[in-house]
Design brief:
This protein is α/β, with parallel strands linked by helices. It has 2 domains: about 5-95 and about 220-240, Udp-n-acetylmuramoylalanyl-d-glutamate--2,6- Diaminopimelate Ligase, Chain: A, domain 1 (3-Layer(aba) Sandwich), CATH 3.40.1390.30; about 100-215, NIF3 (NGG1p interacting factor 3)-like (Udp-n-acetylmuramoylalanyl-d-glutamate--2,6- Diaminopimelate Ligase, Chain: A, domain 1). About 40% of the residues lie in helices and about 25% in strands. It has 10 helices and 11 strands. It has helices spanning about 5-15, 45-55, 75-90, 100, 110-115, 140-150, 180-185, 200-205, 215-220, 220-235, and strands spanning about 25-30, 35-45, 60-65, 90-95, 120-125, 130-140, 155-160, 165-170, 190-195, 210-215, 240. The strands form 2 sheets. The protein has a 6-stranded mixed beta sheet with strand order 5-6-8-9-10-7, sandwiched between helices. The chain has a 5-stranded mixed beta sheet with strand order 1-4-3-2-11, with helices on both faces. The longest helix has 14 residues, at about 220-235. The radius of gyration is 19 Å and the shape is elongated. It starts with a helix and ends in a 7-residue tail after the last strand.
Length: about 250
Amino acid sequence: MNIKELLDYTGQILQVERFRDYCPNGLQVEGRHEVGKIVTGVTASMALLEAAQQAGADMVLVHHGYFWRNEDARLLGIKRKRIQFLLQHDLNLVAYHLPLDAHPEFGNNVQLAKLLDLELDGWAGEQSMVAYGKLANPEPLSAFEARLAARLRRQPVTIGDPNKMVGRIAWCTGAAQQYLETAVELGVDAFVSGEISEQTVHLARESGLAYIAAGHHATERYGVQSLGRHLAGRFGLEHQFIDIDNPV
């Protein structure tokens, strides 16, 4: 499969042009022109790049790539080593950030909803980054937390009364604590994100909204896998997800 054709298709289905993002979406480091195997992962760490090369990848597809807004543009230290490795092994690095979070079929938010048995009702917040919906049957916060922990294989940080009944849920994967006030405005019982900050604890307590921080990495494993499977099936490619565990 020609890399350009693959990227043209992916950019179209993810509607990349709709998003104001903090990094370039799509091809970030150019490698070989033909792709037979895609390795997906959450973050383009050196550990993922090395594992992808060992697995025979032609393209590494991630959610967290490089060249973030306001970072040092120079190729020094860790960044130099990563870029050098990609160029030496002729590997394509492709990253989709906000377009992959918000996509209605392959996105992190939609995939997390499927994992947690959440019924999606709609989208809210800046660039429609917050999903909201409900559980089929309301349950105590402690029960919802336990199911989330079991399915994500990660014990979350939970703020709220364990006995509080939750039925209406809002969620946004990754570093989404800034959307807490959006969740409050939606009138939901609980908000699920990947991270939590010191001030968020107080805001959650004072609003009466239960807040669950389930892990940035843990909540964003699923969108890139879904996209990788779709591309592999559509174009007859090999796909492998490699999970470089991250406790955060």
